[in-house]
Amino acid sequence: MKVRDVMTRDVHIARPGDTLREVSDRMARGDFGFIPVAEGDRLIGTITDRDIVVRAVAAGASPDSPVVEYISRDAQTVRDDADLKTVLDLMSGRQIRRAPVVDKHERVVGVVSLGDLSTRVKEKYAGETLESISRS
User: Which of 18, 29, 117, 128 is deepest in the core (most CB within 10 A)?
Assistant: First the structure.
């Protein structure tokens, strides 16, 4: 099984100049809490609902502040053609719950999350990985 078989393809991309208000509005309307941030085709980071609350709102940021000021720049990506074990090892080893998925040209083509794995993967190893990540 490949990462592309379990990832969410309908991914929203934020741009560096998007405001916190715009990004949080998209999150609220789409009922998700994670958005990759790209400049052109290049991934430069990610932003979560938690980043917005803890890094921005708690620090007194204006809702019109650019999202690029609050992104996590060390996004761990996985290739869409990678074996599922690759993403399971990444998520378990790095204790992450979501990862942007990129194609061979490094363009964002999806997101893989614990939810994707828990509902779409029947392998024993996936369950062990989910349990390991959830303990953190």
Answer: 117
> In angstroms, how far is CA 81 from the centroid of its own chain?
17
Q: Give the model's confidence band at 50: pLDDT under 50 very low, under 70 low, under 90 confident, else very high.
A: very high
Query: 64-103 burial string, b = 16+ CB within 10 Å, else e?
Result: ebbbbebbeeebebbbbebebeebbebbbeeebbbbbbbe
Prediction pTM value: 0.83
Q: Please list, in sequence order, all residues whose beta carbon lies within 8 angstroms of the beta carbon of residue 13, skipping any fewer than 6 positions away.
A: 35, 36, 37, 38, 108
- As a whole number of angstroms, the distance between CA 50 and CA 130 comes to 20
Tens digit of pLDDT for each residue in 7-26? 999 999 999 999 999 999 99
Q: What beta strand segments (E) does 1-136 contain?
A: 34-39, 42-48, 78-79, 98-102, 108-113
* β-bridge mates for residue 19, sequence order: 66
